[in-house]
Fold:
Amino acid sequence: MSKIGLVIGREYFTRVKKKSFLIMTILVPFLMVAFYAAIIWISMKGGTDSQKIAIIDEAGIIKNEIPTDTAKQAIQFKLIAGESEQSFIPKYKTQGYSAFLYIPKQNIDSASAFKLHSASSTSLSTTSRVENLVEEALQNRRLELKGIDPATYKSVRANVNVENTIDTKDGEKKSHSGIALIISIVCGTLIYMMMIIYGAQVMRGVSEEKTNRVAEVIVSSVKPFELMMGKILGIGAVGLTQFLIWMVLILLGQMAIPMLFPDLLKSATDAAATVPQGAAGMMQTVTEGIASLPITKIILSFMFYFLGGYLTYASLFAAVGSVVSDDQQEAQQMMFPILMPIIIGFVIMTQAVNEPNSTLAVFGSIFPLTSPVVMMGRITYEIPTWQLIVSMLSLIACFLLFTWITAKIYRVGILMYGKKPTWREMLKWGFRKG
Amino acid sequence: MALLEINNLTKQFATQLAVNDVSFSIEKGSIFGLLGPNGAGKTTLIRMITGIFYPDSGGINFEGKKFDTMKDSERIGYMPEERGLYKKMKIGEQAVYLCRLKGMSSSDATKKVKEWFVKLNMQSWWDKKVEDLSKGMSQKLQFVTTVAHEPSLIILDEPFSGLDPVNANLIKEEIYALAKKGSTIIFSTHRMEQVEEICDHIILMNKGAKILDGTIAEVKNHYKENIYKIGATVYPEHLMTHIFNVTSHNTNELCVKLDHDTTPNDVLQYFINQKVAINSFTEVMPSLNEIFIKLVEGTSTAREFTNN
Structure:
């Protein structure tokens, strides 16, 4: 059986030695790091585009709500007296205002007419700041009308955070559904992408062997099944290799960023010192959140479902590859029925991360065609052990069944030229004896 | 000793009977011609011999024992009509890989492939890719990958197509050399002049069945039509005889077809009696091409679909 090893080796090394593999593998995490760096840079630097907005307040709503320390604000508001809406329209731009807010005379209890004039449409954040200002001012005026001191109102206002505690065998555990959600989605999406990307590679590899006619030479030396499995396993190994390289690079990158940009870390700690609920609090939540998750279980399940899902679908992709010829369009068409359950699995997964114990999520995580993706959506939550076992066993069973059937389709398809077989013919080959 | 014995081999596909009860045997060290029109079932037969297909019924004996796909496929080298190599793979690496699939160790395979590359002037190709080669060049490479693992049975399907006369001759010499060293060669082609030149023994297949089997001399002898070519200046209209018919003639040559119980001596006697000066007298043997066309013509060349 060393021949299947030879096939695996060829599939693996021809791909890994390619320049495009190296470029993709190095570039992707580099882009990811650059992406994060750009986000951090923008968020630190952002908001420097200050603008001035004038306010013509005929209703007398705005009093002392305009911030006084104008230098720190991205938007500077200024109350204008002695102008009407119509008289100010031609003037505001020449006076250096990007927009002006017109509040017509109206009853404070039912005030609703506010108009923001600008040369071009204002950004969402500008609009929301203007709205915040007006809302605060209007609320204060109404409180005064009712005889309530706005300061008193502020002091009695309540702000509540509910903490979810999960009761497990090991005692209480803090839940951090936000972190759990993100990890679930990332794992599910990764498996979804890997299945499609590497599945399509298997398909392309098989149909290349067929159209190159090299298949006939190879199957006179090895069994068609060995050739098919060798290709599937070889490409799977490429996937795992790429994955490991990414993990290492991401870890290195995370260590390298603080060294390359020491300022970044410093300003972050500065921010943490002045605003205890800010970045530092966030970091703590993240660390606590990750610590609260069953990391080992997640990693092991991820590996299992990646391999299980990839192997199950790869055999289907191989069967499709063995019956299509050069025609890319034909290949796309044949691929569609295989992609369907993967995509459905992805859709169920996006639901399952929110409702991990809904009937749909439970079904989707046990049904072997969707389970690799959907189970990842549930994995950060407590899953009954029987569900996990049933799901894994049915995935293994499905893999064995598919490989058994597709190997027979493959064996016929790879040496067939000319007319593309129909699905019915393919199934007939698949279920034929011997 | 027969290297390969084929006994009543039959293979049925969904819509056609591809190979129908075919039997023959091939002597060790011989060059065997497998002939037949397109769609005669040659490729299916070869695929059964190489272990790619399993026969529905009948058996194959290889080197005196029952054919064992796993073990014996390593002893066979097969060059299909539709050549195929990995386009993006380096040539040396590819040749070594294909040899290793036939069970050779990495170092043996490298050594053998290098020897062949030197022999066929291909040393500079080692690090090139197949996509850089011309059709004829990749043909040569395909030949090397077929024979480098020293198989005892070599199956060549149209080995000379796409080769220029110089390279075709080179390959032909190698085929003779391999046969001399004890390899057995099955040579499948439509090119009858090559068969006459190279093969010892042939079979002809048509519509899945074997319709001819024998050495080239036997076959020709069987299909000869008692035609003799006579070198003499004579006008056929002056020949009034019932012992032969003139089939063609020109000023100093004529061909005659002898009647059933006429011997060449009778003909000579006749001419001598007529006082005609004879310069030469030879039997005209049919060419394989003529036999092929005669046997296959009239039958539809494509396999018929029995149902669909």
The beta strands of chain A are 51-57, 75-79, 99-103, 115-118, 165-168, 171-174.
